[in-house]
TrEMBL record:
UniProt xrefs under InterPro entries: Phage_CHP (IPR011738), Phage_HK97_gp6-like (IPR006450)
Origin superkingdom: Bacteria
Protein name: Putative phiE125 gp8 family phage protein
Record NCBIfam families: phage_chp_gp8, put_DNA_pack
Amino acid sequence: MEVLTRPAAVVEAEAFFAAVHLADPDESDAAVVRDTLAAAAELIGSAANRPLGEHRVIFSVPARSGTWWFPCAPVLGINEVTIQRADGAWVPFANWRLLDDFSEPRLRIGATGQRADALLQVNARVGYDDGTVPPSLKQAVILLAKDWYEAGIAVEARDETALAFGVKALIRKHRYLRPREWA
């Protein structure tokens, strides 16, 4: 999956400051908190396989007929599906249909007429759009960012820290696991 665009902030710094009861933050605190919130939202979305905020992405999948399950949910829409011809050029492909876009998104792919090693590129919008991120996932972002902020952990060190139990429980509640890759 190639990420083309990322969303604006899912949780605003003001919401974080209100949650941690910090009444008068200075601008340097606000900048650190914005970066920490963005990193926490990315980690929470990745751990739950539910991107927080709308992302534009490209998936490369084998060009074969059948049903392909997306590795994340929800899928807000498909911008374009292209298929790789024998000469390597990418051309529009129209023989597809998006099924159950929110809870178990999958792409039904019709006959492709291409060689076995050809690829499809699916340019899609995934994640929650504005205002639809579940409150419990926003809370998980705040809890994780609070842990990092209070511990003085730099955003770059996020892979080296353990998640708190409450954060894990909130992620587990929303985690998307695709039932299979192809059918």
